[in-house]
Amino acid sequence: MVSYRNIIFLSILFIASCAQVGIITGGDQDVYAPKPIADKTSPKNGTTNFKNNNIEIPFDEFFRLNSPNENVVMVPPHANINTSFKGKTLFLDWEDTLQSNTTYAIYLNNAIKDLSEGNDSIIQFVFSTGEELDTLSYEIELRDAWSNKPISKAIVALYDKQSDELKSFAETNSAGIASLNYLRAGEYKLLAFNDENGDLEHQDHEAIAFDDSESFTLLESRIDSNIYRMFVPEPEAKITYKSFVGPNSYFVAANRSLENSSFIINGEVVPANQQLFHAEDSVQLFWNSDTLTKAEIVVKNDVINDTLSLRYSNKTTQSPLVLASQNKNHVYAPSESITFALNDLISNIDTSLVEIIDIDDSTKITDYTYTIECNKCTFMFDRTDVKKVRVEFKQNSLFGIRDSLEKIPFIITLNEARKYGAINVNLGYYTEPIILQVIKDNNVFDEIKIESPTEELLLTELEPGQYTFIVVKDENSNGKWDVGNLSKRKQPETLDVYSTPTKVRANWEVEIELIPTE
Predict the structure, then answer these.
(1) Which of 46, 168, 291, 383 is the most core-located residue (most Cβ within 10 A)?
(2) Which value, to the nearest 10 degrees, does the dihedral of the CA atoms of residues 271, 273, 278, 281 take?
(3) Which of 425, 420, 421 is nearest to 470 (CA)?
(4) What domain range includes position 329?
(5) Is 453 a domain residue?
(6) Burial class for 30, CB neighbours closer than 10 Å (0-12, 13-18, 19+)
């Protein structure tokens, strides 16, 4: 292979980088959303010595109210607000007595929608029952913990450290920026979350972001230099998918690893050689389903203990055997073994009924070995000067649990090494365990778990194209990216996204060095 030495220092979108700065007042306003007419609002926004218990807010267009009992909120929550409207004017009133010398904000949290487009926004009306408004502000930036992209329309809420009372909230804009205004000096707790049901309370399944410290002291207006990283919390361990696929296999998936599980079908343990893992959290179980139309599957491990029930037709259990090439395009790289997968457990093979023929000279290849693993049959032979072969499985060459295979031929292309390129990756910057993801066409082409990174990692047999990389800092060496945990104040594992593409050409080797830039 020709060596093409061109050291590329890739820049990255680094998770822990500096925040971008921007100011909003409670969230983006869509250009089509109804807007308050400020000089006609009674009393005016920002009024001090407020003694009323009602507010009138005229808008620039007709509107409709969207769940006002839920979406019109006073903060601090010292009153329940009644809403009504006439024409283009919104009327707010309450019967509760407000606290003295307190700055209040009334949020129209997507409560006002226009009649045609349905556009809405967060609108903040502020007043003080004392002589002065609280004037401090606090701004944060919110990004997705994995993609590092800005998170818009997330709620950022501030709570009193002692009472946990909601003191202020805002919605992030398209740049992931939220600015909380009219704050009093004091100690606060901060929580950012994707408020799916609009109740201003975080639910266990909603994406979340938080600070390492449980609280912080605000003495002056400031922009937080820390980027808050939002993630979806790890859900309760459970089975997420189950199905029967004829003639004799059961698919089970979970939101946790199933690799150390026991599987019992209709009271009998499924042996390990009848379990095919497609990923650590999904498994295919092969079991003789003849005459059965239902199955009870028990799945047990350290975190899951579940019993699954499946019903299916007798016709499904009589599905014919189907054999497929493991590579759908029937093209194999030099290091790839030629593998075929049956839609059933392979119970026996008769190699006298399997022919491998070199298409170029029509010679039969007889000096080969093979292996059987669950439902897969792999063939190995000397591939020197062999470019294309015909592999024919004659009738009764392969047997499943009950039936045998009909005749089926395959044309297999064996690519030469020169049709692929290579990348020599320098990982010298990293000293702790990492997971290297190789990305091509926005899909994970390869994922490599590396306990002790070295300066050079050679990636070979790469199809020509553009490649990018993600490096996950695998802090606990468990071989996967771990999200955070609010109760433990644990942030998600950090990662470096190398978004500058590396071009791979056939029969060329490129050298790159992955160095994050903060």
Answers:
(1) 168
(2) 30
(3) 425
(4) 323-415
(5) yes
(6) middle
**What is the DSSP secondary-structure string of 337-367?**
-EEEEESS---EE-GGGEEEEETTTTEE---
452-490 pLDDT, tens digit each: 998 899 999 999 999 999 999 999 999 999 999 999 999
pLDDT at position 197, please?
A: 87
Output the domain CATH number for residue 303: 2.60.40.10
Relative to beta strand 495-504, strand 465-473 is: antiparallel
Residue 252 sits at the vertex; the CA angle it makes with 246 and 254, to the nearest 5 degrees, is 160
Report the sign of the C-alpha dihedral through residues 171, 173, 174, 177, in that order: negative
Task: Kindly calculate the radius of gyration of the chain based on its CA atoms and give it in whole angstroms.
Answer: 31
C-alpha distance from residue 501 to each of 10, 13, 291, 317, 435 (Å): 8, 13, 55, 48, 19
User: Where is the domain boundary, 356, 386, 415?
Assistant: 415
CA distance 270 to 288: 11
Which residues, including other chains, have CB under 8 Å from residue 261's CB and lie 6 or more apart? 283, 299, 300, 301, 304
Which of 197, 230, 263 finishes a domain? Answer: 230
Q: Are strands 305-311 and 268-269 parallel, antiparallel or unpaired?
A: unpaired
Q: Are residues 405 and 492 in the same domain?
A: no
DSSP letters spanning 429-456: T--S-EEEEEEETTEEEEEEEESS--S-
* Count of domains observed in the chain: 4
- One-character DSSP codes across 192-207: EE--TTSSSS--TTS-
What is the secondary structure of 451-487 as a DSSP string?
A: SS--S-EEEEEEPSEEEEEEEEE-TT-SSS----BTT
- Whole-model pTM: value is 0.81
State the first-to-last Cα distance of the chain, in angstroms, to the nearest integer. Answer: 35
Instruction: Determine the Cα–Cα distance for residues 503 and 57; give it in Å rounded to an integer.
Output: 58
Percentage of the chain modeled with pLDDT above 70: 93
Is 467 in contact with 425 (CB distance < 8 Å)? no
Same domain, 202 and 300: no
Q: How far is residue 477 from each of residues 384, 425, 450, 453, 482, measured CA to CA in Å?
A: 40, 21, 9, 12, 10
Phi, psi for residue 272 in degrees, rounded to 5: -60, -35
* Cα–Cα nearest to 275, from 313, 293, 241, 249: 249
- Rounded Cα gap, residues 122 and 111, in angstroms: 8
Q: Who contacts 209 (Cβ-Cβ below 8 Å, separation ≥6)?
A: 142, 145, 151, 154, 191, 192, 193, 228, 229, 230, 231
pLDDT tens across 94-122, in order? 999 999 999 999 999 888 988 876 666 77
